Amino acid sequence: MVISALGVALLILFVGIFAYQGGASQETSDAGQGPQGSAESESAPLDMSRRIAEDPTSLGEVDAPVVLVEYADYRCPFCGLFSRDTLPPLVEKYVKSGDLRVEWRDLPVFGDQSSKAAVAGRAAGKQGKFWEFNKAAFAVAPERGHADLPRERLLQIAEEAGVPDMTQFEADLDSKELQQAVAKDAQEAASLGATGTPTFLVNDTPLVGAQPLATFEKAIDAALKKAESK
């Protein structure tokens, strides 16, 4: 059942990426580009990286040759598996060496608690504790089913993560600005056709689900080799 669902999600993602690239090419053509410009647009790799300096939701160097974009939900059990089992060795092997940058994207798909948890993560990020909150939230996430994350639990996680100003954190849980930031991430995922979590892009290579560590290493190594050949 899980394998089948992941297969469907992967198909949706590929279709979405092709549609996204085709749409971008059409927009370029409509803007008055000649045949050569349109061809270049169609062949350009998909790049969803933002590379924003001092972005609290990112890990690694801004100019790292490979960017791993993760679309995830705090209530997704497979996102928890990635956070606990796969992300730490990737950080040790690739992020610390400057080869990889990890960029988080909020994709709340499991209801209102997911959306509010996404805002909470960003509220922690405003105080420099995004990844600490992220780790604390996923540390106790169930391997099956969805975590229960009411407001009081989000406050507990923030305290566990060491958020220094809890009064400000609680106020930020109702921030329209942070809600809009979460919505922007979700809209970006929708533009790719990504409807499930976790979904990843290793530069322009899509991966869906809590894949084994070796799968990520293979994709990152291939992207590094491609970057070195340019």
Map the helices and strands.
Layout: H1 2-30, H2 35-43, E1 58-59, E2 66-72, H3 77-95, E3 100-106, H4 112-125, H5 130-139, H6 151-160, H7 166-172, H8 176-192, E4 199-202, E5 205-208, H9 213-228
Parallel strand pairs: 2-3
Antiparallel strand pairs: 1-3, 2-4, 4-5
Task: Describe what you observe in this structure.
There is one protein chain. The chain is built from nine helices and five strands. With 230 residues, it is an alpha+beta fold. The chain folds into two domains: 44 residues; 181 residues, Glutaredoxin (3-Layer(aba) Sandwich). A five-stranded mixed beta sheet has the order 1-3-2-4-5. Helix 3 crosses helix 5 and helix 5 crosses helix 6. The protein starts with a helix and ends with a helix.
| Strand-residue proportion | 5-15%
**Average pLDDT over all residues:** 85
Task: Quote the CATH topology of the largest domain.
Answer: Glutaredoxin
Q: What is the architecture of the largest domain at the second tier of CATH?
A: 3-Layer(aba) Sandwich
